[in-house]
Write a structure and sequence with these properties.
By secondary structure, this protein is of the alpha+beta class. The protein has a domain at 14-65: Double Stranded RNA Binding Domain (2-Layer Sandwich). Helix content is 32%, strand content 18%. The chain has one helix at 42-65, and strands spanning 14-18, 25-29, 36-39. A three-stranded antiparallel β-sheet has the order 1-2-3. The termini are far apart.
C-alpha cells in the first residue's frame, strides 16, 4: 500500500478567484499551497486543482517514503 500523507482526508479547501488581467480562474488549495492551477471557467480551474492536489500529495509521499524525518506539530 502506498504511503499517504492524508489517509483520512478526502476534502480540501480551495480558494478560487478570477484573474482580471488574464480572465482565467485561479484555484489554490489552502492546505497544500503548492497545489495551484487555473482554467477558463471556475469549474475547469477546480477540476485542474484536483489533479494538482493529487500530484502534490504523490510528490510529498515519495519524499517521505525516501526516509525524510517527519514529526507532527500541533498549534493552538
Amino acid at each position: 500500500m502506498p504511503f499517504s500523507l492524508f489517509p483520512r482526508m478526502k476534502t480540501f479547501t480551495v480558494a478560487v478567484e478570477k484573474d482580471e488581467e488574464t480572465g482565467l480562474y485561479v484555484a489554490q488549495c489552502l492546505e497544500i499551497p503548492q497545489a495551484i492551477s487555473q482554467g477558463a471557467t471556475e469549474e475547469e480551474a477546480i477540476r485542474n486543482v484536483k489533479e494538482a492536489i493529487e500530484l502534490a500529495l504523490e510528490h510529498l509521499g515519495e519524499r517521505v517514503a525516501k526516509g525524510k524525518k517527519t514529526v507532527e506539530v500541533a498549534i493552538e
